[in-house]
Amino acid sequence: MCAKLPDHQRIVITGVGLTAPNGNSLAEFRAALLEGRSGVRPFETRYFGPTLAGVCDFDELKYQRRKDLRRGTRAGSIGIYCAREAVADAGLNWDKIDKSAVGIYVGVTEHGNVETENEIYLLKGYDYDTQYWSHHHNPRTVANNPAGEISLNMGVTGPHYTVGAACAAGNAGVIQGVQMLRLGECDLALCGGVSESIHTFGIFASFHSQGALARHEDPTKASRPFDLARSGIVVAEGGCMFVLERLSEARARGAKLYGEIVGYAMNSDAVDFVMPDPARQAECMRLALRKAGLRPEDVDIVSTHATGTTSGDIQEAAALREVFNGQGRTLFNNTKSFIGHAMGAAGALELAGNLPSFEDRLCHPTINLDQIDPECEIPGLVANKPKAMDRAEVILNNSFGMLGINSVVIVKRVEQ
User: Fold this and answer.
1) What does pTM read for this prediction?
2) Which CATH topology does 11-252 take?
């Protein structure tokens, strides 16, 4: 049980940096979630044409030069912005930090597709003569690129790598940070997830071919998990990075404490490329709860993964009913209804958006939930308006991905 761990083994969140389609800081993001403000808008991409997407609008030049942007990637730029913002939010004196003791762990769904598609498109103008292929292609497309770009920008000489975990990757990046701190492999972890997915036409085309790409005449109503009229996924970009520290060190410097990571779990369905298995999802939640020493009824908010696909939402709802047994006290919400599915960043963004509940005791809603699908009924599902809470002590964050990868992170309020 995490409650019995000594302070140097208890891991807390002390900084949050993010960019989402409806906000470029935790304060902006939280305000949008409480106001019901969507970040989904019309978008057009090469070959595929007009569609809908969650598009971020952050200041790329706040921490980078134009030369850096030309050489690097959108995912790297998102990661740099989020990591720098997280460090600033944590109140760290970055110049005094031992950069060799900092670890960078970034969750990604995929990386390199954007750059490869762009290069092939440009090469067409040169009759596919590869002498015009960019010499930046290799460093842009290696899997560790987003974490590596953060390392280069911030002068971090400790370990950096990405964690490829499909749409469970945001949680996986956080889990990796917790583990490395407990192992003593770093003294400060920058971790979370990033996604540049809207800049590859292939992801839109693939979801469209599966019949899983959302459509709606009003872009802000296109992402509608659990709703009977849902039509699929809205693809989104974004990122969220956390500063994680050991509780003993965070308290010693008087750091702000967003919450303590008290439990986590990852497992695999091993049944299908895309169809989830509710039994394994339920097993993952139970494992995380067991590690945290908690019961289902101890959880105040469950941040659901639901993406708005017909079958996926039904499967997760079944898993949630199995674990929480309709006890009615636990509240459930969904963040993708506001921003779409930010892939590798989804889990981290969704966790971040719920953290302020520890202070304001409000559970943000699932928007666009006009008529719930009877197969998605979950007692305690918060729809369309925030719900005031008598208690806000524990958040459970679900994040699941293709090829049957499941992740759960549990965060508990910690006394300042």
Assistant:
1) 0.97
2) Peroxisomal Thiolase; Chain A, domain 1 (3.40.47)
